[in-house]
Amino acid sequence: MLDTCPSMFSVVALAVMAIFQAVALLSKGRIETPPSFRSLWVFFLAITLAEWVSFSLALWLLALLSFCALREYLSLVDIRLEDRWGILVSYLSIPFMFYLIHIEWYGFFIIAIPVYAFLLVPFFVALGGRSKGIVFSVGVLDFGLFFFVFCVGHIGYLLFYSARITLLMIIAVTISGWIHKVLGNRSLGVKLPLQLASVFPLCISLASWAAIPIGHSAALAILIPVSVCLGRFTLKELEQDLGIRADRLQPGRGRTIEGLKSYLYTAPIVFHYLRWFLKWGDL
Amino acid sequence: MDLLRIALHLLLIRPMLRLLFGVNVVGRENLDGLNRFILAANHNSHLDIFLLYSALPPGKIARTHPVAARDYFSNPPWLFKTVQFLMQPVWIDREESGIAAIKEIQRRLDDGRSIIIFPEGTRGAAGELQEFRGGIGLVAGHNPDVPVVPVYIEGPERAFPKSAPFPLPLWNHITIGPPQLLHGNSREISSRLHDNLEALAEEERAYRQRRMPEPHKPFVVTVIGIDGSGKSTLSRHLAGCFEGDSCFIGDNLELFKDGAPCDAQPLVANEVRKWVGRQAKSAKNLAHYKIPKLAELLLLRDRLLSDVHRWYRPGQVFMDGSPLLNMIAWAILYHEEAFNEKVCATAMDILTGKHACGKRDPTFKQFPELLTLRKLNLTHLHLPDAVIFLDVDPAICMERITSRGETVQAHENIEKLTKLRKAYQLVCDVLQKTLPVYRLTGDETVEQITDEAAAFLKSIGSATDETD
User: What ipTM was predicted for this assembly?
Assistant: First the structure.
């Protein structure tokens, strides 16, 4: 079964999550679903859709996730009234970005945010006409675009190349992120070996199924936990400044960002590693 | 009809708001079990009313009506009809008195329906709670048995502010406070509701991320006048009679904390300035006086002011003379014939770095020094926040100067001081158009003058606080 299609697995995962969600609903707040559940729903649903229904539908689902994350981020930062045009352009870059994945134009996809959006957004912020605080505004918008559009977009492009690898990455990152979270304040010397120990067997055993050479699979098994640690550490500090606290997550107050935390660093790293070494597309 | 209305709200407006803006309702349970209520919310945006409807329980949607101004929604007609159908508001004509509307509200409340009121009356400044109008107090006072529910909406002031041409997808948080029965007269009810909403607002504001705080900016007061008019004495006294940290910049630098003098860390700029000042004072004639005095005014005093901001962070700074104003007055002394109000204003603009005029401006022909200063990039002087002018007769000043027992400076004679006094008067005339200027005559004792000046400063201080 596992050999025929990855979406079977994600359907199973969806079913498990649905049961868990139902239990959480019935318990009336005594059991709470972890914040990463929402993004996991989107990922598994996207994998299923990509395999069985259509890839573009899966892509627009990811675009919705990206929109939600960016919206939440922009609601949390201190923006000025004059930045409205800049924010509008930031939002418009999401459909643009995912359209580029849709038409498989890698060359433009990879520079759309770091070149064109980063040139256009400051221009539109400057159109607002107040110079006081403009540096902060441009920085705030560029950062949000990079993480919540560009990095999430990489998951979409990975899904375009291989649903199996995407599934492998999602599972590995989820496990690794979960271990990182559960161990809490322990030192990295405890966390990282445990993450490696859990991700390594998974990657090695699924290597042939996901069509990754065994050597690269081993490299991924090291890359994923390391990048998860990096990402979670960085995003934790950012969340603190944004006022997101794990104990008082609310819709619109960090639930989406908290859930996406582990994937933001890992997705581009895994994608570009595989693209380079497996020679996907023309380099 | 009611069913269609509820369906539209639940199936169209609510999902659209959720998807596009994101709606988070806190305290939904506070509306449970209430038969009818008066909902009082803050008002910042056109979105507010739709957001409030999406926080209501489904059973209450058709039986709750907002109070809305007719002129907002009368254009275009389809908007009026839509709002009329969706919410059946109590319309208020802002030109007429509100009696009819109050009667209508009372009728609906008696009918067992609920009312949504924005007590601020109109959309206020973003994120701030305005003074409440009288309506809410009247309505709640007439119906002491109807619970009033305070609701704070946070988010629409960013998602769709008053001045914005288009809405942006940003989250909105609706906090529903506990319902309460209010008694008393309308003013008491208003103020209690205001406090309740303010408390909810405080809670919401605590979530906000803030970027770098605004740089510290003290209130700079300058005392100007001719030599011997007692301006340094007055500014030192003033520094001593204000709360918080005050700083006096005169021949020497003094710090006051809540009126008591305290030790100050020496600043290099101040030591250099003192030395240059001594050079200027010992000058034999006006030509020799010019260069050190200019250097002191242009380079050192301004530098000192920014150093004081940086190291002492005082609340108020009292300066014995201002670099800018002194220079202008002295320019009059050197080029008396060409000076008038217009030239004075232009010179001030040039020296504060506003590029108000081109290189060929006649002002530069009259004052080649200004062009030199501009070429040297020395036109960065600051205007003070308030000016006090000591208008003292030169004869009295000369008396004081000679009684001091110090060496008399090159310009300190009756003729020059009279000219200088006129110059300062001209400067004050120009300044009065933009800055608070207070003129004092030196007839009274030091204490009286200080009290008068302090009262003046306090009055403008409170005035600026209100406008901010």
Answer: 0.87
